[in-house]
């Protein structure tokens, strides 16, 4: 019999009156890759945090390599050889890459630090194949590189059990393959990986066994051999439900909503971009291609020069001017740029729209609560608590709250940067339906996604992006994902490509 690296029995977790895990029993075999899947809010990340010591179970027991444990927190877990890398990045922005990787593991003598983290990081990067500048400030790196720091942190701790919570949500396809090779290498070394992911194909590809949670309960744990994607979808969603294809595309109206000309700044060089009312326009590019920078320049978050007209009027390069004109942006980093984690769900949703819910300076609390409830129900936010602690919600449910926040104000142009990052198949359907409803109501949509399939399934038109430039317009209904990837790599290797 293979020894169990981790054994959980009767794990129950409550946040206030809400029970998010109910009597979970699961055994993780040593020297294996164990998948943990479920809808957003099913409890998979919560269970991962219990196993990693970040959450305390209300009841139940844990054993590590056959030995029962009492007090269980991150330092104790690490002392037992259990490390966790978080879906929501746990990094110190103004420290360097190397300092973040070795935080808490600094070498010193008589209290004096050696400051040799950069040299130590080179060894970890050489063995893993991941490359970053050890001296770069974390705050200046894109999300994808910050996610690599989390991976390197886990590897640097040389843990026997590594819990990876949505480690691929911001990585390119090549980087995902590289991570999967690292996971296989860890397994060969006898170490154990718990892989929490909403990418079902990835889970089926690399995992030995898969555990499915639904509504905080254990549904099944089975060998991945013989399982297919549809088996997992049915187990996650209940009964014999299948994934819904992208909603049908409705024809956009002819009225021009956004017109951008000669936009330059912060690595952005856009000659021309037009989006019509009711149109979903996609931006497709490799990680670091400048897609987000283009969006930030349009909305005024970054300094830029050029001419922007919206609904026939010239638009100043400020966030205030964009917001007053009816332009909103749902950012990629929901925790730092999208939500106020110290505020409850209702306050986060209503915050940008306080004037609409106030009269003579006094909030219309009943109307505010009613509208928050309507949006929570519309986006199927779980737990469905108006004043729920958003910091404890799953990443996917935080994303739903963020969408509800910005779609409440009847925007005329919505810029969506990675709207389904860290989101499962069920929540993805809700988000895709909301995007299509926006366009159908006449709003223009600028969609940025690392998942090419998502852009092809939703967008009416799309541009390929390279180094902050729009290099090729495509018809999403007439090209394949492989053709787009080939074109992106081709443009990346060319200089002086014009629009």
Give the SSE layout:
Blueprint (H helix, E strand, L loop, with lengths): L3 E12 L2 E12 L3 E5 L6 H9 L6 E6 L2 E3 L4 H6 L2 E4 L11 H5 L6 E2 L2 E2 L3 H12 L14 H14 L4 E5 L7 H16 L3 E5 L3 H7 L2 E6 L2 E7 L5 H9 L18 E10 L2 E9 L3 E5 L6 H9 L5 E6 L2 E2 L4 H7 L1 E4 L3 H5 L6 H6 L7 E2 L2 E2 L1 H14 L16 H13 L5 E5 L7 H16 L3 E5 L3 H7 L2 E6 L2 E6 L6 H12 L7
Parallel strand pairs: 3-10, 3-11, 6-9, 9-10, 15-22, 15-23, 18-21, 21-22
Antiparallel strand pairs: 1-2, 1-4, 4-5, 7-8, 11-12, 13-14, 13-16, 16-17, 19-20, 23-24
The gist of it:
This protein has 499 residues and is of the alpha/beta class. It is 33% helix and 26% strand. The protein is globular and about 70 Å long.
Largest beta-sheet characterization: 6 strands, mixed
The strand order across the widest sheet is 6-9-10-3-11-12
Low-pLDDT stretches are 494-499
CATH class of the largest domain: Alpha Beta
Which word captures the global form? globular
**SS elements, strand count:** 24
Query: How many domains is the backbone divided into?
Result: 2
Q: In CATH terms, what is the architecture of the largest domain?
A: 3-Layer(aba) Sandwich
CATH topology of the largest domain: Rossmann fold
Helix content: 25-40%
Query: Assembly state here?
Result: single chain
Q: State the end-to-end distance.
A: 62 Å
SS-derived structural category = alpha/beta
Percentage of β-strand residues: 25-35%
- Count of individual helical segments: 17
Rg from alpha-carbon coordinates? 23 Å
Mean pLDDT, all residues: 88
């Amino acid at each position: 019999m293979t020894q169990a690296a981790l054994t959980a029995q009767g794990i129950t977790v409550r946040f206030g009156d809400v029970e998010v895990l109910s009597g979970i029993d699961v055994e993780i075999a040593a020297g294996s890759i164990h998948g943990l899947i479920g809808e957003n809010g099913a409890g998979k990340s919560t269970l991962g945090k219990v196993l990693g010591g970040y959450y305390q179970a209300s009841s139940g027991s844990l054993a590590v390599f056959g030995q029962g444990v009492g007090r269980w927190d991150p330092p104790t877990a690490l002392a037992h050889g259990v490390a966790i890398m978080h879906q929501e990045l746990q990094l110190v922005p103004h420290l360097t890459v190397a300092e973040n990787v070795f935080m808490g593991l600094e070498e010193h003598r008589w209290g004096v630090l050696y400051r040799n983290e950069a040299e130590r990081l080179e060894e970890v990067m050489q063995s893993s194949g991941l490359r970053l500048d050890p001296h770069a400030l974390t705050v200046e790196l894109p999300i994808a590189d910050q996610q690599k720091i989390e991976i390197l942190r886990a590897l640097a701790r040389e843990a026997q059990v590594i819990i990876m919570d949505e480690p691929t949500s911001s990585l390119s396809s090549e980087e995902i393959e590289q991570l999967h090779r690292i996971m296989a290498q860890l397994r060969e070394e006898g170490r154990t990986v718990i892989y929490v992911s909403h990418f079902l194909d990835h889970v089926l590809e690399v995992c030995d066994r898969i555990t499915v949670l639904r509504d905080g309960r254990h549904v099944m744990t089975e060998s991945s051999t013989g399982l297919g994607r549809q088996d997992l979808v049915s187990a996650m969603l209940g009964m014999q439900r299948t994934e819904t294809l992208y909603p049908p595309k409705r024809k956009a109206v002819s009225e021009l909503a956004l017109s951008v000309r000669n936009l330059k700044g912060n690595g952005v060089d856009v000659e021309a971009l037009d989006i019509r009312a009711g149109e979903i326009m996609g931006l497709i590019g490799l990680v670091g291609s400048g897609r987000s920078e283009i969006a930030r320049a349009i909305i005024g978050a970054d300094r830029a020069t050029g001419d922007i007209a919206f609904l026939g009027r010239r638009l100043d390069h400020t966030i205030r001017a964009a917001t007053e004109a009816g332009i909103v942006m749902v950012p990629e980093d929901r925790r730092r740029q999208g939500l106020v984690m110290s505020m409850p769900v209702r306050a986060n949703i209503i915050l940008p729209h306080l004037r609409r819910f106030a009269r003579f300076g006094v909030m219309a609390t009943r109307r505010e609560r009613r509208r928050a409830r309507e949006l929570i129900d519309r986006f199927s936010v779980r737990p469905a608590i108006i004043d729920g602690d958003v910091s404890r919600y799953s990443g996917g449910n935080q994303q739903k709250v963020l969408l509800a926040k910005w779609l409440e104000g009847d925007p005329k142009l919505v810029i969506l940067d990675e709207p389904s990052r860290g989101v499962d198949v069920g929540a993805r359907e809700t988000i895709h339906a909301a995007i299509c409803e926006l366009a159908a109501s006449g709003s223009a949509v600028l969609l940025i996604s690392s998942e090419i399939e998502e852009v092809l399934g939703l967008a009416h038109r799309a541009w390929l992006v390279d180094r902050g430039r729009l290099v090729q317009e495509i018809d999403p209904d007439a090209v394949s994902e492989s053709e787009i990837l080939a074109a992106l790599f081709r443009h990346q290797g060319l200089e002086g490509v014009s629009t």
